[in-house]
Amino acid sequence: MTMQKLIQRALTLGLMCLAFTARAELPADYKVVLLTENFPPFNMAVDDKNFARDDGIDGISADIVREMFKRADIGYSLTLRFPWDRLYRLTLDKPSYGLFSTTFTAERQPLFKWVGPIARTEWVLLAAPGNNIAVSDLKSASQYRIGAYKNDAVSQHLESQGMAPQNALRDQENVKKLIKGQIDLWATTDPVGRYLAKQEGVSGLQTVLRFNSAELYLAFNKDTPDEVVERLQKALDQMRAEGIVDEITQNYL
């Protein structure tokens, strides 16, 4: 056998080994453990409770994520539970765990592997109906009692600005606190805040300040195989190009 043929055979075997190794990263029975919370209209329990599995969960992000996994041909289980703080820490600690809808921030970027964006939101300060609070920026808002959601990106952002929000384990608690006068402003995500307020029978909240826009992603534990991330991102990009992401979003809004 000539030297050229030996080299060609070695290259072919090398490529086959690389392909096998890449494939070995994702066994046929591989499954992602997906976690989410009540964060309507993006992800929520069909029965409005704080625990649900698989088909008992719907919402914009939930429907998009299901279609992504179907197209990527990757197995998964889906659980909705509470509180967010626990889900966040589980995903940081457990290989092949994923969490959505997770706001992408510069501070969080090195902590996870990311697929998205799935959706976009705005961060707002809301006041109770009839309240005349007026602020021009977060600095001027810091004089007021601000309620937020523990370990949520909005709360983390306020804390990074040197503010000390009163963090609740359920964002719905802030609706009640606002109406009772226990906090002056509610730092939350739009349209999530208004949706939660409506569920609590509250309408007419005043938008005092819009201070950031954000993108929602599917965040994975850092040890998740790159192949999972790549296949899911490709599926999401295809869905967006086909108009599927916009179609799902409009079904809820």
UniProtKB/TrEMBL annotation:
Keywords attached to this entry: Signal
Organism domain of life: Bacteria
Signal peptide range: 1-24
Record domain Solute-binding protein family 3/N-terminal: where: 31-253
SUPFAM superfamilies in the record: Periplasmic binding protein-like II
Full protein name: ABC-type amino acid transport
Gene3D superfamilies: Periplasmic binding protein-like II
InterPro entries: Solute-binding_3/MltF_N
